[in-house]
Amino acid sequence: MEIHKRGKDTEEKTGSSRVFLIRQILNVIFMIGAVAGGLLYWFMPEPTLGILVIMTSMFFKMAECVLRFRK
Asked: Which of 1, 13, 50, 59 is exposed most, by the fewest CB atoms within 10 A?
């Protein structure tokens, strides 16, 4: 009989952890914000809005990093 222990490694690989799901959502928000900010930066006459969007999306990435390192 094989005994399966549930641990952090198993939860991280399967994605069943609640923190893992929150991290993935924060990463998606960051990626969308970074792409949108880059497009606004390059294609708008004034790059200020693009910079603000990129800086805002960086806060989501920082929150994701805090969750990752807190573990």
From this structure: 1
User: DSSP class of residue 1?
Assistant: -
Distances (CA, A) of 43 to 17, 31, 36, 61: 39, 18, 10, 24
Per residue in 26-61, pLDDT tens?
999 999 999 999 999 999 999 999 999 999 999 999
Q: What is the DSSP string of 2-71?
A: ------HHHHHHHT-SHHHHHHHHHHHHHHHHHHHHHHHHHHSSSTHHHHHHHHHHHHHHHHHHHHHHH-
Tokens matching residue 6: 């549930």
Whether 10 shows a pLDDT value over 60: the answer reads no
Q: Could you give the CA distance from residue 3 to residue 15 in angstroms, rounded to a whole number?
A: 20
